[in-house]
From TrEMBL:
<dbReference type="Pfam" id="PF07703">
    <property type="entry name" value="A2M_BRD"/>
</dbReference>
<keyword id="KW-1015">Disulfide bond</keyword>
<feature type="domain" description="Alpha-2-macroglobulin">
    <location>
        <begin position="266"/>
        <end position="356"/>
    </location>
</feature>
<dbReference type="InterPro" id="IPR008930">
    <property type="entry name" value="Terpenoid_cyclase/PrenylTrfase"/>
</dbReference>
<dbReference type="InterPro" id="IPR019742">
    <property type="entry name" value="MacrogloblnA2_CS"/>
</dbReference>
<dbReference type="InterPro" id="IPR050473">
    <property type="entry name" value="A2M/Complement_sys"/>
</dbReference>
<dbReference type="Pfam" id="PF00207">
    <property type="entry name" value="A2M"/>
</dbReference>
<dbReference type="InterPro" id="IPR047565">
    <property type="entry name" value="Alpha-macroglob_thiol-ester_cl"/>
</dbReference>
<keyword id="KW-0732">Signal</keyword>
<dbReference type="InterPro" id="IPR013783">
    <property type="entry name" value="Ig-like_fold"/>
</dbReference>
<keyword id="KW-0882">Thioester bond</keyword>
<dbReference type="InterPro" id="IPR001599">
    <property type="entry name" value="Macroglobln_a2"/>
</dbReference>
<dbReference type="InterPro" id="IPR011625">
    <property type="entry name" value="A2M_N_BRD"/>
</dbReference>
<dbReference type="GO" id="GO:0005615">
    <property type="term" value="C:extracellular space"/>
</dbReference>
<protein>
    <submittedName>
        <fullName>CD109 antigen</fullName>
    </submittedName>
</protein>
<dbReference type="GO" id="GO:0004866">
    <property type="term" value="F:endopeptidase inhibitor activity"/>
</dbReference>
<dbReference type="InterPro" id="IPR011626">
    <property type="entry name" value="Alpha-macroglobulin_TED"/>
</dbReference>
Length: 552
């Protein structure tokens, strides 16, 4: 067969005539326009000779769902019907044949068609809002089969633009179920030939034996099985299968499997159960970021099976105000620019008044490259910006934190008609370096059984940063005495809990680095001998040893 398109000629597979010893054939035709599961399907059979009986088999998902022999009153054209089983969806095949009385020849044909009604469990998703601001609560309403398990996924739409395939879809389920039916396949065709969506042609059956392909046939009748020779000329690149090349295989080390635990781009990953009325309700806050989120859902019922939401609801997380600074910690006295973006979703340009408050006096306002003057004593600073329609304008405030701990960052924007505000917390750490001190205390209980109390004084240097004393940390070594003749020294308990802070040594040379590694080896050996080495402790110390080895 030759095809000409746009001046180019393509040679496709030839169409061979069917083969029969008696030169008798039959054809199966689907009469029902749109067959559905659990509904009546009508078929028509055309034969080249009058037949007195007919055998039909209904095949779905690789299984014979229905088989029946019906008498035919010596007619060449005959119609019959059957009730389509659920397993015929999404694609079913009807095979018809009869046996000639003169030479016991089997004359057969088959037809494949789509069947609707694969998903009996319906599910719909709706929300109380289409657009909302970051951090606001959103109500998600689900309607499905009563008492069905419902899974909900909400994911950043920007991630799907990079790569999709993260969710279950109707198309994937249908495509997977269609592969259950073996279909027509011969030994003369390579594996790529069966990919009807990628190949240029898909030939019909040349003999009755090929119609029963992928089935085990036990019969004493004449079943002609003539193969289709592969005469296809393909003008598109085709991958080679089972091609052996005399090349040395490179030794590729197995990559270490790293299990991902954090999914910041995923908003919803939850499941719930529908009530007796088939309704489920989920209330959740949208992430505090400017993004669009796509919500999908599926449901599973014990008897009705799987259901997938056909309409994907896109929830836009839109706000007029966005905090664009990702800084979480800053040193006290360090200049920091707090940047926000003010959006205008109107069709006209607007003028906004953007203000940053400092009512508690936790920081000072400043100006880059200039003397701050009296700005540092202000409890509020305001900037006027004009925002074009459907755009956003960044606004920055330069501050210098003067308090250790968490400070409040509050920015507001107001126009003649609208207003919005945003509050964040910023962690301010003291400048300088941490100082470590050691103090030994001898306790002797051999002469007294009373509880001994000691007050330990901590020396704070004169040059200590103000308010940094709140970050004092203590480590200790405990001694447990049994009696006057025997004592048990438990040095491992506190050491295991604070192994990362046990020794403070620089790592500039090998000896200093090894000192920090040795305690982990001793602790693991001690816990292993006492049968107290758990998986969590072992993984913790192995990770520390690995870091020390790499540093060495």
């Amino acid at each position: 067969m030759r095809a000409i398109y746009s001046g180019l000629t393509y040679y496709l597979d030839r169409i061979d005539a069917a083969v029969s010893p008696s030169n008798n054939f039959m054809q199966a035709v689907l009469i029902t326009p749109n067959p559905k599961a659990q509904e009546t399907v009508e078929m028509e059979v055309n034969a080249t000779e009058p037949i007195n009986h007919l055998v039909y088999q209904v095949i779905g998902r690789g299984n014979i769902l229905l088989a029946k022999t019906i008498p035919v009153p010596n007619q060449k054209v005959y119609r019959f019907n059957f009730r389509a089983p659920n397993a015929m969806a999404p694609k079913g095949r009807v095979l018809v044949y009869y046996v000639r009385s003169t030479n016991n020849e089997i004359v057969a044909d088959s037809v494949t068609f789509d069947v609707e009604g694969l998903f009996k469990t319906s599910i719909t998703v709706s929300t109380n809002v289409k657009e909302t601001q970051p951090g606001r609560q959103v109500d998600i309403n689900l309607r499905t089969t009563p008492n069905a398990l419902v899974g909900v996924l909400g994911i950043d739409l920007g991630i799907l633009k990079l790569k999709s395939g993260n969710d279950i879809t109707l198309e994937e389920v249908i495509e997977d179920l269609e592969t259950y039916d073996g279909g027509q396949m011969t030994k003369y065709n390579p594996p790529w030939y069966r990919r009807r969506k990628r190949s240029l042609s898909w030939p019909g059956s040349k003999s009755a034996g090929l119609i029963f392909c992928c089935s085990v046939i036990m019969t004493n009748a004449l079943l002609l099985n003539t193969g289709n020779e592969d005469n296809t000329v393909v003008h598109t690149p085709v991958p080679a299968h089972n091609l052996k090349l005399g090349l040395l295989e490179a030794i590729v080390p197995e990559s270490r499997l790293v299990i991902r635990k954090k999914y910041p781009e995923t908003w919803l990953w939850i499941n719930t159960t529908a009530g007796n009325d088939g309704l489920a309700f989920i209330s959740h806050a949208v992430p505090d970021s400017l993004a669009s989120y796509k919500i999908t859902a599926f449901s599973v019922h014990p008897t009705d099976g799987l259901g997938i939401a056909t309409s994907h609801l896109i929830l836009l997380s839109l706000g007029h105000f966005y905090y664009n600074d990702s800084t979480y910690t800053v040193l006290m006295g360090e200049d920091l620019a707090i940047q926000v973006v003010v959006f205008n979703y109107d069709t006209k340009a607007i003028t906004a008044e953007v203000s940053m408050e400092n009512r508690k006096g936790e920081f000072d306002f400043t100006v880059a490259g200039k003397d701050s003057g009296n700005l540092e004593y202000q409890n509020r600073r305001t900037k006027i910006v004009r925002i074009p329609p459907s755009e956003g304008i960044p606004v920055s405030f330069l501050i210098v934190p003067k308090k250790v701990g968490f400070i409040e960052i509050k920015v507001s924007a107001a126009t003649s008609l609208l207003g919005d505000s945003l509050t964040k917390r910023l962690h301010v750490q003291p400048e300088g370096s941490t100082q470590h001190y050691n103090k030994a205390l001898f306790i002797d209980l051999r002469t007294s059984s009373d509880i001994i109390k000691h007050n330990i004084s901590t020396i704070i240097p004169r040059n200590a940063i103000r308010d940094s004393g709140e970050n004092l940390a203590f480590s200790y070594c405990s001694l447990v005495f049994i009696d006057s003749s025997m004592c048990l020294v438990d040095l491992m308990g506190p050491s295991i809990k604070a192994i990362d802070k046990l020794l403070y040594m620089p790592t500039g040379c090998g000896e200093q680095n090894l000192i920090t590694i040795v305690p982990r080896v001793i602790i693991m050996e001690y816990l292993s001998k006492t049968n107290r080495l758990t998986t969590a402790i072992r993984n913790q110390h192995i990770g520390g040893l690995r870091n020390g080895y790499q540093r060495q």
